[in-house]
Automatic annotation (TrEMBL):
CDD domains: OsENODL1_like. Residues 26-130 form the Phytocyanin domain. InterPro entries: Cupredoxin (IPR008972), ENL_dom (IPR041846), Phytocyanin-like (IPR039391), Phytocyanin_dom (IPR003245). It comes from the Eukaryota. This is (wild Malaysian banana) hypothetical protein. SUPFAM superfamilies: Cupredoxins. It is found in: Endomembrane system; Membrane.
């Protein structure tokens, strides 16, 4: 009996989706160009608008290019982000070519280390999705409204539990047939 015959169409679709869905880790140049880490030219929240257009997943990296003599990148807590508080960052990067690997799902907060820059909009929230192997359509990117709160909404957690559950069942079926 061929492997594919004994798999339900749903299992097959799930396996296919997990293969197709597993993309390589990506590097994201913050703001989309070399001069983006700076005070935005006007009141648009341009860095966060950029972030909302992208889909960040665990394993991806953020890359900043900036003049190290004038600026730096501070990774901070949510409170420090909201208050533009530069006094005790979680991490400080000032090499002019900063790479931050997104190891964990959730929200990451960054502000400029230059005096007054965060207050004028040089700041960034990135929300990182937990799943590399997610089904298209089932996994939804968090809406901008969620980015100030918990990174994963309850509904998407429930969906992921369903996907995980069916994934496990299919894995067991495949495992059973291989033994
Ligand atoms: C603000 O800046 C952005 C990017 O440079 C530009 O596209 C937009 O038109 C500007 N908005 C205003 C109101 O000047
Ligand atoms: C900035 O953060 C530090 C350390 O968490 C805290 O002691 C200080 O009060 C904060 N400053 C403001 C203006 O909130």
């Amino acid at each position: 009996m061929a492997l594919s015959e004994s798999l339900s169409p749903f299992c097959l679709a799930l396996l296919l989706a997990s293969i197709l869905g597993s993309s390589e880790a990506r590097d994201f140049l913050v703001g989309g160009n070399d001069n983006a880490w700076r005070v935005p030219p006007n009141t648009t929240d341009s860095l966060n608008q950029w972030a909302e257009k992208n889909r960040f997943q665990v394993g991806d990296s953020l890359v900043w290019k900036y003049d190290a003599a004038k600026d730096s990148v501070l990774q901070v807590t949510r409170d420090a982000y909201l208050g533009c508080n530069r006094s005790s960052p979680v991490a400080e990067h000032k090499d002019g070519a900063t790479v931050v690997r997104l190891h964990l799902p959730g929200a990451y907060y960054f502000i400029s280390g230059a005096a007054g820059a965060c207050e004028e909009g040089e700041k960034l929230i990135v929300v990182v999705m937990s799943e590399r192997h997610s089904l298209r359509g089932l996994a939804t990117a968090p809406s901008p409204a969620e980015s100030e709160g918990p990174a994963v909404a309850p509904t998407s957690a429930a969906r992921r539990a369903v996907v995980f559950g069916s994934g496990m069942a299919c894995s067991l079926v495949v495992l059973g047939m291989l033994m």
